[in-house]
Amino acid sequence: MTDDAAALRAQVESLEQRCRELETVRDGVVEHATWIENEILAQNARVEEHLRRLARYLSPQLYQIVTGRDAGAAPSHRRRRLTLFSSSLVGFDAVTESVEPETLAEALNRYLDAMAQIAIEHGGTIDRFAGDAISIFFGDPIATDDHAHALRAARMAIAMRDAMPEIHRAWRRAGVSSPLLFRAGIHTGYCTVGDFGSGERMTYTAVGAQADVAARLARLAVPGTVVVSEATRALVEAEIDAAYLGAASLRGSRRPMKTYELRGVRDAERADPYLAIHAGEVSLTNIAFSTASTDDATRRAMSAALRTALRLLEDGAARAEEP
Fold first, then answer.
1. Who contacts 295 (Cβ-Cβ below 8 Å, separation ≥6)?
2. 242, 128, 112: which is closest to 182 by C-alpha?
3. Are 99 and 175 in contact (CB under 8 A)?
4. At 67, phi and psi to the nearest 5?
5. Within this chain, do residues 294 and 181 fall inside the same structural domain, yes or no?
6. Does 36 share its domain with 2?
7. Mind listing the pLDDT tens digit for each residue in 14-40?
8. CA-CA distance, 145 to 277, in Å (whole number)?
């Protein structure tokens, strides 16, 4: 019995030792798992910070595409009719020679930030900033119809023009006393839009003969005005106040182009009560009707909103399937 008790005691001690070893292993696994979890959280935080920085360099529409696209995917291009906007500041070159670089940088960033916010509010895709020059287009990657693109571009241009007095006051407070006058051009035409560049660096932009017309119109504009082409004016003639300026011969154009000064947008305060499009986000609201009593005008307006939303939804699905 003594031998049996000793053997039993030895087994118990062996089991206790094994339990201690398993507890040590468990503690190690828990510690390692906690380290992995913390490392994942830290990595996610770093990724989020990189994404926040990336968002500052891209328009909201392009940011959604880039962050959802395979980095190794082949570049994609498509032929689209776009409404293109270009603007610059008259007198900017002279100011760069007379103002301290830090003051100039602050003033320029204040201006570009205000213009970018206006562009985003109107659903424009910011193509690029080049010094004081701004390029924006409507019609890709979110497309509705040519009329809507041209009207949003016109509204945006007027909002930018009207924002300049407040920007001038901010510039004067910052030490920039020389006048910097806004001028812009708008044109509608077919372009190739998509990814361009090398395997190391890509840019999302519009190219083609029509892509440069807006910038050439901006150079024709009297400081403080917006010039639109006949192609754009024809799309929104009923909604804008425009004065005929004459036919201009633009570099790259085979014949003179009719140009107009955009003075205002008559329905700038009117909004679609059933469809809202902001920075690439589409929402339907207030669509409730009676099959028996809803009047024809309301029915047509609701139908148009639904058709536009469906077209946008299908267009987005088609782009998601692109290689």
1. none
2. 112
3. yes
4. -75, -15
5. no
6. yes
7. 887 888 788 888 777 777 777 776 677
8. 12
Where are the alpha helices (H) located in the chain, listed in sequence order?
Answer: 2-55, 60-67, 92-98, 101-121, 146-174, 213-220, 230-235, 296-320
Same domain for 224 and 179: yes
Q: Structure tokens of 64?
A: 């959604």
Residues 17 and 104 in one domain: no
- Answer yes or no: is 198 within a domain: yes
Beta partners for residue 248, in sequence order: 257
The DSSP bridge partners found for residue 175 are: none
Q: What is the DSSP letter of 287?
A: -
Q: Which domain holds residue 293?
A: 273-320
pLDDT per residue as tens digits for the range 81-90? 999 999 999 9
Residue 139 shares a structural domain with residue 194: yes
**Helical spans, DSSP H, in 84-189:** 92-98, 101-121, 146-174
Helices (H) and strands (E) in the chain, counts: 8, 10
Tokens 């062996």 label which residue? Answer: 14
Farthest CA pair distance, the chain: 120
Is the separation of the CB atoms in 144 and 308 below 8 Å? yes
pLDDT in tens, 131-147: 899 999 999 888 888 99
Q: What share of the chain is helix, strand, coil (3-state, %, to 5)?
A: 50, 25, 25
Together in a domain, 220 and 163: yes
CA distance 248 to 293: 53
What domain count does the chain have? 3
Q: 305 and 162 in one domain?
A: no
